[in-house]
Amino acid sequence: MSRTVDLVVPCYNEQDVIASFYKETNAVVKDIPGFDFRYIFIDDGSRDNTLPQLKALAALHPEVGYISFSRNFGKEAGIYAGLKASTADLVVVMDADLQHPPSMLPDMIAGIDEGHDCVAARRITRKGEGRVKSWLSSLFYKFSNAVSDVKMEEGAVDYRMMTRQMINAVLSLCERQRFSKGIFMWVGFDTKWIPYENVERTVGTSKWSIRSLFKYAMDGIMCFSTAPLKMVSWFGGIVCLLSFVYIIATLIQTSIFGIDVPGYVTTLCAVLFLGGAIEFSIGILGEYISRIYLEVKNRPIYITKETNIHNGNDEEAVE
Ligand code: UDP
Ligand code: MG
To answer: Which of 1, 22, 33, 40 is deepest in the core (most CB within 10 A)?
Structure first.
């Protein structure tokens, strides 16, 4: 009996690539014997013709499924919706823009057959990407790996094949603010990394701005580490200790030499510095509290407007 593979593809304003994505991917998967491939496209509230294109594709090909969100919920929500709707033995997460080469799928299957739980792609070059973006990204990996228990592989992209067991583990993490790169590492299991050269986007544009990347990086750090909180308390402790030493020294100095009036600059510096440090610490606390607030509200991760997949797995759907 052949095994099944679900390809989970989040799409946001990807009208120009859907047809070529299907064509190129299908050309690869039809030659892989012993596997039935299905597609789960997620239309993440696109404002172009992505949904009509997906519907047209689904009308022509029975293996094409789609879930359309009521608005743009973000790629993470798209990935989650796809994983939740999947029922296959193996699931692949990949981008619609062909930056994740379908030609790697046979190698991924080979990796799974070697006994790995997950086979993931890792970019070894960042050709075609802005210098600032590359530098910021590498800074993020360095900082995040230094402060977090979950080690993230530099260059890892959201292109990976996973076994049903691993998918179930990923889905068992029901947090609202999802940072898949961290979640995939957190659940453990044995991952084989396949290196590949960065592929430039030929059609459409990247949906990431520096601002959204910064938010993404903050999520990555805050969702998987409490180190910033610890740093703040360490900092507070060190400042307390230094102040204590300073108080003792001042007391001794005053009792020996009497009261020394000048000290305006020192006082101002101390007040400004401590004021800034307190604001900064409150800011870090605020980041965590806002995340707790969002989690506690327990809102659905996404809302489905329409879909052609009805397998009872899509619990989040509010139709
Ligand atoms: N995407 C999405 N929702 C969003 C932003 C992006 O589903 O809000 C999808 C997008 O359609 C693509 C994938 O996520 O299939 C990766 O996006 P993009 O190519 O813009 O990111 P990059 O390759 O530049 O990191
Ligand atoms: Mg892309």
So the answer is: 40
- Give the model confidence (pLDDT) of 236-262 as tens digits: 888 888 888 888 888 888 888 887 677
- Confidence band (pLDDT; 50, 70, 90) for 316? low
Which of 8, 12, 178 to mutate for ligand 1's pocket (most ligand atoms within 8 Å of CB)? Answer: 12
How far apart CA 50 and CA 306 sit, in angstroms, is 13
**Three-class secondary structure of residue 190 per DSSP:** coil
CA gap 58, 67 in Å, rounded: 11
First to last CA, the chain: 35
* Cβ neighbours, 10 Å, residue 23: 10
How many whole angstroms separate alpha carbon 285 and alpha carbon 297? Answer: 18
Look up residue 196 and give its two tokens. 């590949």
Q: Which atom of ligand 1 is nearest to the CA of 94?
A: 15
Question: What pLDDT is recorded for position 203?
Answer: 78
Could you report the per-residue pLDDT of 149-163, keeping only the tens digit for each?
A: 788 888 888 999 999
- For residue 99, the ligand 1 atom closest to its alpha carbon is 23
Domain boundaries, the chain: 3-131+152-207+300-307, 227-297
Q: Nearest ligand, CA of residue 68?
A: 1
Length of the chain, in residues: 319
Fold designation for 3-131+152-207+300-307: Spore Coat Polysaccharide Biosynthesis Protein SpsA; Chain A (3.90.550)
The Cα-based distances of 1 to 30, 34, 144 in angstroms read 16, 7, 43
Rounded Cα gap, residues 102 and 76, in angstroms: 21
State the distance from the centre of ligand 1 to the C-alpha of 254, rounded, in angstroms. 65
pTM of the model: 0.85
